[in-house]
């Protein structure tokens, strides 16, 4: 009887799991293991919202394994040391895992693979996270892409979805002692995440349900409605993708099977968003410094404003006096999520009107988003700030008032997350400081002026940009 450890990481599912499938097909008895080692993530150990989701996702994975007569073996500490301990305890002769692609984890995994093989252990790693490996696509000159459109055009010429695979109906596994999940300390001590679970169902079953809800609902009209924050116009699959509770190719297979003349544009529009996810990992692989530094070196000369804790805190807590910005930041705190259009607006306001370095925003999102993903987070903030690949130019400064009027025309999103403004007339909910008497009468606790004057902030940002060109 041969024994193999299947090391679960960012692939918390049983279906479409290449590492698990390979170990089973090789005839191994399985030791399903999770090793908690946030210290090995470098400067980007998971934030509080990610930890909270991870607790629930591991709980669901363990329940799935127990239904098959197995259980998830949870350990904590140095990954290599814990794998060696598991090998010694079980007599395992092989270790299987699905690859991770962060700058800190890639060299760690390479060292573990090399070390275990030197000890005579069979090691296999697989792609369980992406449609394309980050190094798989290259320009005609053989280098990495910095612009999305040619990257995606190349990707579509190589479009071959992996076959789907079902979860095992049974699992020949070995039981080993492990830690209780509570010992990992993943749940926020103050119960800050309590409201999250009204909106989310972590785990593989929750991911599948979210896909079905999207396919039957928001997919219809996706291209037109994905920018409207007052409705469910997006898939809400991003946290499930981040934790590997669903494979991107299962999503693509599901949507491809629904193609019709009336749905092609919406399906293509969503699959293109999966392409942006691929592009972000391509960028982080080839430019690993971009989680911390500007991709565009010109912005090393940019005159960012020194961080002012009071102003930054007002932005974080949704007290800027600009309703669409405050609505987004409050949605984030309450649900661990923010609509993508609003992410662009709050980011633009921070980096341009407030002229604070995008790293302040990236760090806050990292700690508060349930879909916090190093590649997407880094690319997104650099895109907003104008410092990254294929970025919105810095001189493109979103006006949050006109953006709110365009994408939240009835102010439903604003009224939901900034309820003290709901009693104001519609026109006053977009820029309440322009209606001081109404504001004083109906929302006396709301800021009477924006944190930054929009016109002055825009002019100062453009002047700073001109100086660094």
Radius of gyration: 23 Å
Provide a count of the helices. 19
Query: Structural class, please?
Result: mainly alpha
Give me the CATH superfamily of the largest domain: DNA Cyclobutane Dipyrimidine Photolyase, subunit A, domain 3
How many structural domains? 3
CATH class of the largest domain: Mainly Alpha
What is the helix content? 40-55%
Distance between the termini: 66 Å
Strand order of the largest sheet: 3-2-1-4-5
Quick one: overall form? Answer: globular
Task: Assign the CATH architecture of the largest domain.
Answer: Orthogonal Bundle
The topology string of helices and strands comes to: EHEHEHEHEHHHHHHHHHHHHHHH
Report the count of strand segments.
Answer: 5
Which residues form runs of ≥5 with pLDDT under 50?
A: none
**Rounded average pLDDT:** 96
Q: Tell me the CATH topology of the largest domain.
A: DNA Cyclobutane Dipyrimidine Photolyase, subunit A, domain 3
InterPro entries: Crypto/Photolyase_FAD-like_sf, Crypto/Photolyase_N_sf, Cryptochr/Photolyase_FAD-bd, Cryptochrome/DNA_photolyase_1, DNA_photolyase_1_CS_C, DNA_photolyase_N, Rossmann-like_a/b/a_fold
Cofactor: (6R)-5,10-methylene-5,6,7,8-tetrahydrofolate; FAD
Organism: Stenotrophomonas terrae
GO molecular function: deoxyribodipyrimidine photo-lyase activity; DNA binding; FAD binding
């Amino acid at each position: 009887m041969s024994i193999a450890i299947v090391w679960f990481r960012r692939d918390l599912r049983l279906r479409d799991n290449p590492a698990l499938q390979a170990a089973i097909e090789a005839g191994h008895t399985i030791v399903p293991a999770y090793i908690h080692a946030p210290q090995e993530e470098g400067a980007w150990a998971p934030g509080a919202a990610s930890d909270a989701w991870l607790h629930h996702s591991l709980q669901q994975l363990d329940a799935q394994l127990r239904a098959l007569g197995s259980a998830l073996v949870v350990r904590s500490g140095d990954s290599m040391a814990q794998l060696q301990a598991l090998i010694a305890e079980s007599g395992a002769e092989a270790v299987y895992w699905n690859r991770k692609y962060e700058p800190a984890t890639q060299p760690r995994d390479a060292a573990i693979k090399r070390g275990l093989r030197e000890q005579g252990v069979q090691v296999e790693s697989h792609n369980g996270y992406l449609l394309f490996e980050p190094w798989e696509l290259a320009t005609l000159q053989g280098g990495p892409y910095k612009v999305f459109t040619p990257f995606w055009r190349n990707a579509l010429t190589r479009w071959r979805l992996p076959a789907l695979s079902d979860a095992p109906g049974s699992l020949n596994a070995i039981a080993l002692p492990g830690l209780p999940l509570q010992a990992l300390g993943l749940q926020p001590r103050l119960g800050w995440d309590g409201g999250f679970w009204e909106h989310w169902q972590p785990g593989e079953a929750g991911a599948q349900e979210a896909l079905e809800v999207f396919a039957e609902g928001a997919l219809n009209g996706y291209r037109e409605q994905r920018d409207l924050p007052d409705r469910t116009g997006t898939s809400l699959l991003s946290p499930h993708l981040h934790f590997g509770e669903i494979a991107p190719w299962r999503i693509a297979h599901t949507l491809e099977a629904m193609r019709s003349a009336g749905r092609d544009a919406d399906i293509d529009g969503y699959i293109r968003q999966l392409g942006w996810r691929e592009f972000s990992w391509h960028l982080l692989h080839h430019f690993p410094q971009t989680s911390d530094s500007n991709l565009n070196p010109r912005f090393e000369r940019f005159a960012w404003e020194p961080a002012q804790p009071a102003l930054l805190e007002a932005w974080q807590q949704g007290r800027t006096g600009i309703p669409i910005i405050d609505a987004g930041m409050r949605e984030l705190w309450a649900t661990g999520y923010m609509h993508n259009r609003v992410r662009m607006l709050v980011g633009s306001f921070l980096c341009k009107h407030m002229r604070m370095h995008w790293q302040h925003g990236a760090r806050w999102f990292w700690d508060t988003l349930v879909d916090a993903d190093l590649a997407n987070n880094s690319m997104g903030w650099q895109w907003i700030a104008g410092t990254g690949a294929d970025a919105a130019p810095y001189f493109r400064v979103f006006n949050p008032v006109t953006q709110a009027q365009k994408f939240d025309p009835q102010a439903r999103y604003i009224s939901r997350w900034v309820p003290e403004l709901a009693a104001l007339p519609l026109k006053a909910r977009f820029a309440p400081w322009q209606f001081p008497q109404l504001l004083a009468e109906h929302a006396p606790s709301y800021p009477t002026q924006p944190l930054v004057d929009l016109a002055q902030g825009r002019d100062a940002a453009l002047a700073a940009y001109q100086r660094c060109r």
